[in-house]
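Sanity check

After download, print the first record. It should look like this:
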Amino acid sequence: MQAGAQGHALDAREAVADLFAYFAELIERRRAHPADDTVSDLVRVLADDPQAAIRILGFAFTMIAGGNDTTIGLLTTASQLHTEQAGLRARVASDPESVGPFVEEALRLASPVQGLARTLTEDLSLHGRTAPAGDKVLLLYGSANRDPRAFGPHADEVDLERTTPQHLAFGYGPHHCLGAAAARLQGRIALTELLARFPHFTVDAPRGTFADGCYVRRYETLPFTAGE
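Expected structure tokens:
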């Protein structure tokens, strides 16, 4: 079940049912035996909520279904950036404080969610044009995150000292990504561990292939060499 793949949603019914069954069992297990994990925290916080089970199921499903392909998009693009810029790799590998800024730049340049459609609830005027209420608009995060009007003339490059406005990889306002903090944490941990184990790794981006679909941008295959 892939967010960026083509196909009919009903074809994933069995996979969705299996996922819900897994989390339903996990909820009951964590009620009896709490652990140091998110489901245990949710069980504790929602202990008096009669809708606790369905709320936790919905949260868990959203985190898995929404965060799987997108995090792959972040990590594969980050690996590509490391390969293309040897100086960048050396700095990030030697300076733990630079991993966080690098993840932000990788998120901006990868824009794992390329865009989402919205319906205007009121007239909107931008750059000399007006779109009336009721119109459908496509918010192209991938384009906005490389806009030189926001990020300067080198918007297509990694800049670990970038101080320009926050990128839109996680959306904005009430639509801000529910799993943004988890994605940032995963990115920092995965890249730190990858560089620690394979400090000279490379990926062959020209030989890589992207997953089908226009919603999530991620590599489906990306040849990896561990290096010396």
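If your output differs, re-run the checksum step. Summary of this record's structure: The helical segments are 13-32, 38-45, 52-84, 86-94, 99-110, 141-144, 148-151, 180-197.
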